[in-house]
Design goal:
Radius of gyration: 14 Å
Distance between the termini: 28 Å
Number of domains: 1
Shape: globular
Number of strands: 6
Structural class: alpha+beta
Strand content: 25-35%
Strand order of the largest sheet: 1-2-3-4-6-5
Number of helices: 3
Order of helices and strands: HHEEEEEEH
CATH class: Alpha Beta
Amino acid sequence: MNQEIQAYNDKQNDDFKAICNRLAHLIDQNLPEAENKIWHRHPVWFLEGNPTVGYSIQKPGVRLMFWSGADFGEAGLNVLGKKFKDASVFFNDLSEINENDLKRWLNKTRQIQWDYKNLVKRKGELVRRS
């Protein structure tokens, strides 16, 4: 695991640390080609420089976010972004992570992407990559 991401995970309370470590492991396992780093203070995975999935700690729990997740057609990603095409789910216990769902979502992140990488260059216009 990326050392910066491990350091981020290690700073969390025990429950959230376990969730973060599991998410990072599953994302790394299912998106081995993805670059990952701390971006805007949170772990994020990129495909060809485009942010696709990441997680952060928020009041409702550990938020797993897919940048283009609103187009996945997945009921489990039930927190939809208001401005962009993101979708999220929150976890408060390790047992809430459904690995089959997560694997399916990670596969969809390869297939369905909006171009966040060039959002600034396009002056806020979001264009579909695939």
